[in-house]
Task: structure prediction
Amino acid sequence: MRALPVFLAVTVWVAPALCVAQSASATSRPYDTLPDWSGVWSMVGGTVFDRATQTGQGGAISVGVRSHPPYNAEWEAIYQSHLERRDKNLFPDTISNCGVPAGFPRHFNLPDPYEFVVRPEQVWVLTENGPNVLRIYTDGRKHLEDQWATYTGDSVGHWEGDTLVFTTVALKGFRDKDVILDRTGLVLSDQSHATTRIRKTDPKTIQVEMTIEDPRALTKPWVVTKQFQKMPAGTRVYDYGCAENNRNPADVDTGKTLILGPDGKPLNK
Amino acid sequence: MKTHALLRTLAIAASLAIGVPLSAHHSNAGFSTDKVIELTGTIKEFQFTNPHTWIQVIVEDAKGAKVEWSIEWGSPNSLGRQGIRPSTFPPGAKVTIRLRPMLTGAPAGGFVGAKFEDGKIVGRWE
Result:
């Protein structure tokens, strides 16, 4: 008689849990078969998002510097307007006022350390700057059909050998004017999505190749590759409390980046 | 201790100033990209905080008035990984600092380098 409650408990509570676990493990790879992406990494080069198509000399805030994504005429005009404001120091970085994530695909275009945490059911890409977290589910789940748009979107993927392949959907893009790709003023629409391939090309290099599609803004897929190099062993990663002492907020009216004096008042309003 | 102010423009190669990786957090805030000035004063405070650090220096101007300068540097995280600490700029220390000044003439700028009375150098001092 005492066996019946135990049987029922197993049937009602444990069995469904096992089914979920089996469902996940059916596509998750065990730890010992996963690549070693441990350590701390930093992006190679400056923060011009598509350096392969960059024209102009300098960095993203330098006058005349731009990338050349396959924009349609409407979005090329939007980019041109951003470039003109950038040249006048009036195009604000959306993360300068602290509080919002960098978003995708800018997640792979940040200064400061990165960590690539590989687990059987998820991969986490952590950035000190921000900080930001990109979660990539590798447990076999699918994108939700009714997923609402967010800064970083929804990423699910799988392993092809030692290459992580994942798709990212449900992105806000520039819909609310608070996600950019870099400080030249590159932006995408809320119809953007991407397929990304990450692999370790040598012991000190991780390569991230993004194929970005955007039926509203782009005329064809846009492939952007970023490299990350391993930082010295023992490198520490720290807090990045953006709001701790932010003396460079963007003026909400003009877009101008302010410098606050010791009294908290702008020195360059 | 009387604070002596020395403010002069240094002719430097444009390549020295352009591309200085100061602004990991924000867009161009109006610092000069083609000139560096040098000033001498007394450290008031080293704000070793995110997203950027700030060196507050009291400098005596030409009329003898004491002016507080705000000199922006990198994040404490990146600087900390390079050996910089909150104690690097101790309050009360006399220091000569080179910076890229604000274009508006306001008492602020981007840090380039510093030299203390004992000869210790922080940053670039070529």
User: Anything to note?
Assistant: The helical segments of chain A are 3-25, 73-87.
